Amino acid sequence: MTAWHPVLLTDKAAIRAFLNRDRVLSAYALGDLDDAFWPQSTFYGARREGELHALVLLYRGLDPTVLTAFGAPDGVDAILSAVDLPGEMYTLLPPALEPVLSARYALHNPHREWRMALDPARFPGGSVDGAVRLGSEDAGALADLYRHATEPGEAIVAFSPWQIAHGVFYGVWEGSALIAAAGTHVWSQAERVAAIGNVFTRPDRRGRGLAARCTAAIVRDALAAGLDPVVLNVRIGNDPAIHIYEKLGFDRVCPLIEGPALARHLAG
Question: What is the CATH number of domain 117-253?
Fold first, then answer.
């Protein structure tokens, strides 16, 4: 059998061509080709007979580093064997690649999620009453809001104030307090892709559709900017959230595994 050849990838065109095979699955990685995200992104590939069959991305713009991967499991395994990996990471993977990572890392309480993608023809517009665009000056208010994410499964693990300046965030205010918000993990007009995340309503203000309005505002802006796909992740079994996203025009496309991972030699 022809051997795998792991390589550092620096040619955006080659990376883009591989990721464009499934733009919904690879939406986050596509966004990281954007000039705003590229400096924090390291792409590795595995070639066989000169053709790229697997890809691993290490994104260091968040703490801990985020690892995501695509393609042939044996090729991903060859990359992980050749690369100097951090001891602690956050992972986002197709389920078929979980055994490859698990051989090296202990996954702590991995989340089973749906990758949902927007069908632009089904977006109803939705009410955005009260949802206002947030700016970098609102980072403190967002951080205060996300501190309310104390229930199991609610932790906001992928928020950085840097994302506000390089993405789109909407929120609902009650006086000087931010009580609901939604934002983007990825927003790239160059790559024509957006990934919505950090959707949250303060527990004592739920049931009023506030987060749905914030999400609708982001979708409206993404469509106006010509972005496609627009994706988000939602926990499998979170039927109320899935129902809301479906009403906004999102469809369940594929499952994913997400969660923190610790190198086995550190986990004991």
Answer: 3.40.630.30
